[in-house]
Amino acid sequence: MTDNELKRSVLTVTAFASFLTPFMGSAVNLALPSIGEEFSLNAVTLNWIISSYMLTTSMLLLPAGRLGDILGRRKIFTAGLVIFTLSMILLTFTPGIRWLIGIRILQGIGGALMFGTNMAILTSVFPPGERGRAMGINVTAVYVGLASGPFLGGLLTRYLGWRSIFAFLVPMGIISLILIRAKMKQEWADARGERFDWAGALIYGLSMAALMYGFSKLPSLPGWIITGTGLLLMPLFVLREKKAFHPLFDMTLLSKNRVFAFSSLAALIHYAATSAIGFFLSLFLQYIKDLGPRDAGFVLMSWPLTMALISPAAGKLSDSHNPGVLASIGMAVTSVGLIILCFLTEETPVALIVAVLIIMGAGFSLFSSPNSNAIMSSVEKRQLGNASGMLGTMRNVGQTLSMAIALMLLALYMGQEKINPDNYPQLMNSMKSGFVVFSVLCFAGIFASLARNKSLRK
Q: Which of 199, 278, 388, 444 could make an S-S bridge to 120, C-beta 3.0–4.6 Å?
């Protein structure tokens, strides 16, 4: 097999994996009412259909990346794809909610194995001059999944039932597995022979589970207690990793690698500042502007569609220009969009919302691919799994933190009341306060992004 054939095969398979989870996540969100009706579920149980997957991936992303470094990234990625595809087959025939949540946990294991290694595989295959473009295409797949999930998921749920969402993706998983077996014969295991830190993985998993679950329960007292437990376990994990001969995570990446440390911090801040925007604007469009779910979905699609169009060019640009500078510009553009949203009122036209979403989509594109390029290009080959796992972890934690901020503000302004015309002013105040918080976060993130070393190790 030629080098170009290998690159095309790797890019195809990893792009599919990057499409899979956001498509399924956005499609399943749309199908939750249908699932709830079939199994007679309350809102708390419905939430576990989403949370069970998120908790599992957050616990396992970093260990999965490390396992890829030791055992082989192709092997771990393939195992993840097998588990993910199998779970989709099982979800198509699931008989009840306990089975559904259990299989979603299994799917989270598969997702972690794939996303803990996919960026590491891309970095192993594509040299510095081509890496940014490959990551840009990979990021494009993510946002194609986000953009198409509500539309295709809605059609499948309406005409074929919610189970068809999972059945729809099974052939893609099987084709990808065939492609891996036929075309991806090379293995990448730059830390082969090193021991896996099981104790560190256990402490890390418990800490991430407590943080993610605690975030989702804020601002309740149990939420604070569980989050605090997760925070207390983090220093224990750091101490363990400093003493371990073969640590789960190499702490020198944070203490001595300025590019990696500040790029990871910038990713965390950027996801924390942006992930709940779609949630807030969905409420604004449907309650305040009285749009139906379909029309609101079309408005919100302008963001991921913009990212899908711009991300390949942004990634390619990071091959020839400093990715840290590009990412900082992207975060600044995102900040502009957030600042505009701070002045949102009941009279704000929908056309302006679309314009702001396009601005933010452009900013996110300029940030995401170059920042990923900066992170993956700043580490040695034996640490690529660590870097890939950290990148996924920052995304998950940032998304959860963003939603926690949004839900805390809604609880602060509206309590436990259902949304109705009488409390629309409180709803508007909670959203505007959220946009102020997110603007401050994103503006601070510009400086975290600029603080990285200008000289990236390739």
A: 388
DSSP symbols for 5-17:
HHHHHHHHHHHHH
Number of structural domains in the chain: 3
**In this structure, are residues 193 and 71 in contact, taking their beta carbons and an 8 Å threshold?**
no
Q: Within a 10 A sphere around the Cβ of 230, how many other Cβ atoms?
A: 18
Tokens of residue 256, six digits = 């001595």
Looking at residue 256, the DSSP 8-state letter turns out to be T
245, 275, 302: which is the final residue of a domain?
Answer: 245
Whole-angstrom CA distances from 57 to 20, 52, 254 are 14, 9, 22
Contact at 8 Å (CB) between 135 and 315?
yes
The two counts, helices (H) then strands (E), for the chain are: 18, 0
Do 312 and 365 touch, CB atoms closer than 8 A? no
- State which residues form the domain around 332: 252-458
Averaged pLDDT, 204-215 = 85
SS3 102: helix
Same domain, 345 and 384: yes
Q: CA torsion 285→289→294→295, rounded to 10°?
A: -100
Render pLDDT for 327-354 as a digit per residue (tens, 0 to 9).
899 999 999 999 999 999 888 999 999 9
Retrieve residue 318's tokens: 């990071």
174, 84, 172, 78: which is closest to 118 by C-alpha? 78
Do 338 and 448 share a domain, yes or no? yes
